Amino acid sequence: MGLKEYLRINRQRAFLVLFLITLTQATTTVYTYLTSPELNAISQGNFVLFIEMIGVQFIIGQICNSSFNIASVQNTKQTQNLFHNVRQKIVHHYYQKPDKVSEMENHLGNDLQMIQTSYYDVYFYFACDLIYVVFTIGTLFTFHWILVAYSLLITLLAIAVPRLLEKYTNKATEQVSSKNARFLNTIANWFDGLEELRRYKNKAILKKKIANSSNDLEQSEYRRDKTLIYVELVAAIFDVAGRVGVPVIAGILFFNHQVSLGAILTAGYFANGIFYSVKSCVTKYAQLKSTRTLRNRLAELQKMSSEKNHDSIDEIATIEVKDLSVEYSQGEQISYPDFTIHRGEKILLTGDSGTGKSTLFKTMLGQIEPTSGVVIYRNQAGKVIKPDLNQIGYLAQDLTMFDATILENITMFDQQLNDQVKSVVEGNAFSADVRRLKNGLNTQLKVKQDLLSGGQRQKVVLMRALIHKKTLLYLDEATSAIDREATTKILRNLVGTKNTVLMIAHNLSTDQKKLFDREIHLEGK
């Protein structure tokens, strides 16, 4: 992610920006250069020529201001279009490979903001300063070549020395991004439990955790700024050497009758402009390079991974679990019994807490890598297939809802399914719930507000899977918050389908358990 991407997003606009900033610096150089004939006109007593130069200078100044402002606006538009494109690609990446919310927020928000302020905005002004330095050093040729030689020497030294600090600025910027991601993760983790902390009046631990993470972030930003200040300090040394040296050399040349009086003052103006711009270029170059690792990381996130060829979940005839075991990070290991599920079976999965029922589901869905063993999906012919596990109807205990209507949460925004909603609502004991809501299925939900009860949310997510014709369902405590009568109706509806169902439940009655074809009970150690 760099200059190539900036140019590629809209080449015509990018070259317009380059043309306008070149025009800006060219007119700025001419504007300053006219000081010399103005001063010579005053020394010669030529008032008319002096007024003419002032008029020309005024017109050039207006062209300079206009071209710079237009370039700035076009650069902002180019950059924002680029970031829109980048965000779309990163979202596509995370759609395929989800990550922690804090990581995604950091890359889509803070990292892009840092790239804008420390790379693209800096690049704009870096280009302005660099073009100005080229024009002004070239203009000094009209006065004397020694002025050019001295300016080039100081410029090269000013650029070469700070490069030694490049790896430190790059590392410092990477640390800021990393610490910001941790800070966002800390906020997400602890504020999720805010109600519980308030219930037990434990504000101190919240303040401590947020303060520690915040302090780490602040320290990383301080170290980055300190590194960049060192670069500015080095640049300032050469800045002073250039500003003082050029007028001194011009004065010596004047006393040797090699340049005019106007040339001395104009050379001084140019020296101020040149070495201010050189100092600015050095500082901005350090900022540009400091973002390299971060830009490379964002570039990786934008790479489109090829869509893998998966078999349809409708082809699954059997699911085999063999020698399966999972080890947790703290060292605990869970081993599972071998079993086979046949298409259309309705199986109840039970077991005490800690026997790994939910972990089994996540392993069968490919979300957790097993320590040993395999989960094999076969088709009707007995051939091993690789279905798209993301297409399996999975109802986790942590239900996913969206800021949308109940209807949209059921259909997942597919309006072609609207006509089928009535039947799934009736089959899943949700009709009475709908009648109690003023706007019925068109009731607007807010994820952060508990408008629906836990049982109602379970019904909505279950209806979502059924209306989308998911032929294979993994249900993790899908009716735990639903009353017994409604649960019985839902279970009767489920067993009456041709779907393959594997359901975790712990609070079913004997009659409800009898609705299933069989039960797999997981034993503890």
What does this structure look like?
There is one protein chain. This protein has 525 residues and is an alpha/beta fold. It has two domains: 3-302, ABC transporter transmembrane region fold (Up-down Bundle); 313-522, P-loop containing nucleotide triphosphate hydrolases (Rossmann fold). 63% of the residues lie in helices and 10% in strands. It contains 18 helices and ten strands. Helix 1 (3-9) crosses helix 2 and helix 9 packs antiparallel against helix 10 (261-290).
Annotated CATH architecture of the largest domain? Up-down Bundle
Specify the structural class.
alpha/beta
Contiguous uncertain segments of 5+ residues: none
Shape summary: elongated
The beta-strand count equals 10
Distance between the termini: 52 Å
Radius of gyration: 35 Å
The name of the CATH superfamily of the largest domain reads ABC transporter type 1, transmembrane domain
Instruction: Tell me the number of helical segments per DSSP (H or I, 4 or more residues long).
Output: 18
Largest sheet: 5 strands, antiparallel
Q: Mean pLDDT, nearest integer?
A: 83
Care to give the gist of this entry?
This protein is α/β, with parallel strands linked by helices and 525 residues long. It has 18 helices and 10 strands.
Please render the helix and strand layout as text.
Blueprint: H1 3-9, H2 11-33, H3 35-44, H4 47-96, H5 101-140, H6 145-160, H7 166-191, H8 194-199, H9 203-255, H10 261-290, H11 292-302, E1 318-327, E2 333-335, E3 339-342, E4 346-351, H12 357-364, E5 372-378, E6 384-385, E7 393-395, H13 406-411, H14 421-427, H15 431-436, H16 454-467, E8 472-476, H17 484-495, E9 500-504, H18 510-513, E10 518-522
Helix pairs in contact: 1-2, 2-4, 2-5, 3-4, 3-10, 4-5, 5-7, 5-10, 6-9, 6-10, 7-9, 7-10, 9-10
Membrane topology: Multi-pass membrane protein
Keywords: ATP-binding, Membrane, Nucleotide-binding, Transmembrane, Transmembrane helix
InterPro entries: AAA+_ATPase (IPR003593), ABC1_TM_dom (IPR011527), ABC1_TM_sf (IPR036640), ABC_transporter-like_ATP-bd (IPR003439), P-loop_NTPase (IPR027417), Sigma_54_int_dom_ATP-bd_1 (IPR025662), Type_1_exporter (IPR039421)
